[in-house]
Specification:
about 220 residues, mainly alpha, 2 domains, globular
Length: about 220
């Protein structure tokens, strides 16, 4: 009984403080992102820099994150979720699967089109490079959540394996985005269209080859 009472009181305390804690986490995420953006790829911020920018204490930081690396991972995850929401919104403007795929490609590559967005994204990738996560180490973790958005349009386009094809396309496009960011280049319109057409070509049904007529022996 004593353990039940202790657990119930702890849960009640957490429930009362949940909004406060959520606010602290958001402030830390936003502050971490801003500090990374300002420093770019020149130096990595310290926990002290982040808590100062957030107006919080070290105790508040370590209440939610075991280390600065954990915060960087959370910032990368938060950014991927935001990008996913943006892509879903853009894809919803199209009724045909081809248009949805094009919107997806355009949305991903748009992260390199805006100078400020590109600089911020590159700073996060640079900080994440030592963690083995995100596009800095490979596109798998960043591309995975985004690939889910392509499952349905790929299925409608006749893909034999929509999940696998979506994963392959996400890896390719997110890797290409990383290339643009590291080279500080903006994708040209013709390049975006070419990449979109490449992705569509990967899942469109191919015409069956005509059976060859066996040669008669004489």
């Amino acid at each position: 009984m004593e353990n039940d009472v202790a657990g119930r009181i702890a849960q009640q305390t957490w429930a009362r403080r949940a909004p406060e804690y959520a606010s602290e986490v958001r402030r830390l995420l936003d502050a971490g992102l801003e500090v990374m953006r300002k420093r770019g790829t020149t130096s990595r911020p310290r926990v002290a820099d982040i808590v100062t920018a957030a107006g919080l204490s070290n105790d508040a930081f370590y209440r939610h994150f075991a280390s600065k690396d954990a915060l960087v991972g959370a910032i990368l995850e938060d950014g991927t979720e935001r990008l996913g929401s943006y892509l879903a919104h853009q894809m919803a403007k199209e009724s045909r699967p081809e248009g949805q795929v094009r919107r997806w490609v355009e949305g991903v590559l748009s992260q390199a089109a805006d100078k400020d967005v590109a600089a911020t994204t590159l700073a996060v990738l640079w900080n994440a490079g030592t963690l083995g996560i995100g596009m800095a180490a490979g596109p798998a973790s960043a591309g995975g959540p985004l690939a889910v958005l392509l499952h349905e349009p790929f299925a409608q386009l006749g893909s034999a394996d929509p999940e696998l094809d979506a994963s392959l396309v996400a890896h390719a496009v997110v890797s290409k985005l990383a290339d643009y960011l590291w080279r500080h280049e903006r994708p040209k319109r013709a390049e975006v269209e070419h990449i979109a057409e490449f992705c569509l070509g990967a899942v469109r049904p191919r015409p069956a080859r005509a059976a060859s007529t066996p040669r008669s022996r004489r």
